[in-house]
Prior knowledge:
The protein is mainly alpha-helical. Helix content is about 80%, strand content about 0%. It has 18 helices and no strands.
Amino acid sequence: MTTMDLRIVSTRARIAWALFDWANSAYATLIVTFVFSTYFALAVVGDPLRGQQLWGWAASASGLAVAILAPVLGAVTDAGGRRKPWLFGFTAVAAVGTALLWSSEPNPAFIVWVMVWYAIGNLGIEFGVVFANAMLPDLVPPSRIGRWSGWAWGLGYAGGIVSMVVALLAFVQADRPLFGLDKLAFEHIRAVAPLAALWLIVFTAPLFLFTPDRPATGGNLLQNFGAGLRQLRGTLALMRAHRNTARFLIANMITMDGLVTVFVVGGIFAAGAFGLSQTQVLMFGIVLNLTGGLGAAAFGWVDDRAGPKRTILIAMVGLFVTAAGAVAAPSATWFWIFGSALGLFVGPVQAAGRSMMARLAPPGHSTEFFGLFALSGKATAFLGPAAVATVTAATGSQRWGLSVLLLFFAVGGAVLWTVREPPRR
Length: 425
């Protein structure tokens, strides 16, 4: 397998790679969690309970597709060498799917339309993350993987804040939204879809321009596909010899079930359980991204000094406590307190997880292993939203529905406890 010489990787190239987290942040904040999801539940569906269920099912469908295909495409990419062409293709898919959400009117007739394009956009985003994450070990020395992963996540949260401020001032809360958008048709809310798509295109561009890619191996797509499948079969067959890595992937799988649940239905829960308006949900999103960015950047140093496992475990304890407080909050004020604090621990779990996978992945197999990492994050990611949807429907309570995420955090932390810290290289 071909790898890159770290001596030729400039700081500009690393910053351009880190900007990918900034680029997809608008999608995560404006579409998945805080703005469009709330619009879908309250205006398109017209019922926050049913909206929470349907949004969860759409996320589950795209997550299942990523889980099935990510390891295969990761192995094929490792066989072919280059990652940027795949990243470009899936970024285009994400941008198109997201932009088309603009045409969803506040009418139940558009429920299927929204769910389809949301699932497609989410598919493109998640595959892009696989290929971008796999570039990290080729760009950064092992001793600095933790801090660069943390800084990138911090940039992502900062991008989420800036994108939400832009959406708030230009569209959502503006007396006269840009481009003369019609508030009665919710155009000022739907505008976040093309904004997120444009944000992704503009801020992904530096990665394609300045970040080097591994050289191609010379095989054609069909040859690389065959070689990738053989490599993947060999890797899966050898997982018994990599039981430590397998346990980490299982721990990540369970933990991500809980985090995906927070991202997918968090905004809908805030609006339905505490009566937060669209503007208030957006303001809460800004605060959550601020605390998330601070946590990711600060814990990056902890990662390089204490190791990714300890970093994740500390963050997961914080996640459990703050999530429990947010779900059981007796008032909107307490929800704001616990929900804002939760952000401090979301970023470190994700950033340190990426760091640990980069340390565990064998040289020359990083995309394949990050494909397995994506599989672990998506294989059962549909279970979290599906469990929320099921419990919400059975109990008629958004609180009981969202409380299932606590179980995912507790079990994920218990499994991670058994994982050995990867040796420093």
